[in-house]
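TA notes. Do not distribute before section.
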Amino acid sequence: MSDRRESLPSIPARPSGTPQASPARHPVVLSVIDLDKRFGDQIILSSVSLEIVAGERVALLGESGSGKSTLLNLVAGLEPADRGTIEVAGQRVDGRDADASARLRRERLGFVFQAFHLLPQLDALANVMVPLLLLGTPYREARERAAMQLASLGMSARAGSLPATLSGGEQQRVAIARALVHRPALLLADEPTGNLDEENAQRVLALLDAACHEHGAALLMATHSTQAAASASRVLRLAHAGLHSA
């Protein structure tokens, strides 16, 4: 079930280049400074700065096309920025080659893609095992941890199912299990509750919250859902290519 898109009040602009930072004195997991991104003549992001600390959950609001997904892709090193710096857990993201970016994602990031990106030839359990196996986790341990993560999302009965046989909501839960299973320092989530009913959306939000509180992860979540935004410790809004407090 798709989440409902609520109209939100306009947010007063914050001076560009000023990091959107939490006052808490925890280790900084994500640091973004003066980030710019264009597609042709269109300015998508301009002088965006952001800081997220361990345990913090940040919801990112904005209209479709405002640059939310682009910002997540830049942070993950999936697209190059035109200007600015990005650090995840003290490691620079910008300027890395493809292999170094992939290694950083494996070790430090968990990404819940809006399109899921499950491997079609692998069942749900094997999809969740992939991040652990890439990190060298022994097969038996990876299998046990993946099974436990699927169980936490109510997906044990579908562990042996291929993605093509799963509903959109089930695929989303598998994708979320895959993002959480290796306990990343930074979780990036693009509409993580968009295909879920209210009960499963609440379950997912609780798991994201637990990952932050229990394991010290930081969360940056792009969403249109007021339910998801209400679960965050801080809410920001992308508008007019800039980032503002909500």
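Switch to the second chain here.
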Amino acid sequence: MNIPVNPDITPERFIQDFAKLLVGWGMPLTAARVFAYMMLQPGAVGLDQIAADVGISKASAWAATRHLERVHQIERFGEQGSKRALFAPMENFARALFNYSRLMSRSGALLRDGATVAKGAEAAARLLERSEFYLAVHEAIEKTVQELMAQRRQAAAE
């Protein structure tokens, strides 16, 4: 794999910059930092390691991993012979985007319904315009993700 080199990037800088992006999408800062850290790891990691490497308490690491599990960014694994949990980024990374896309679809449908009860033509037009936009984005995401996942499966089969 040919990876372009950015001489300014360090693991700490990547974590900081990636976390800023995720916070912009509404993710809590600690969860964003933990996710960015986990993306850099070669395999699943435990809470003690996450806490030590990210510089947070074990309780904060636990709260962050719980959030990341709920939003389908990471998954939990058991360690054989131990109650200790290990965490890693989801292999099915498209799942979160599919969930977002479905939210766009439901929002579009609800906005369309809202147009039928809007007070006045201007409000109805505004709702319909947003509805059409959300539904078009939903369709584009679904189509693109399906195409990319098919390409990924094909590449893995070769």
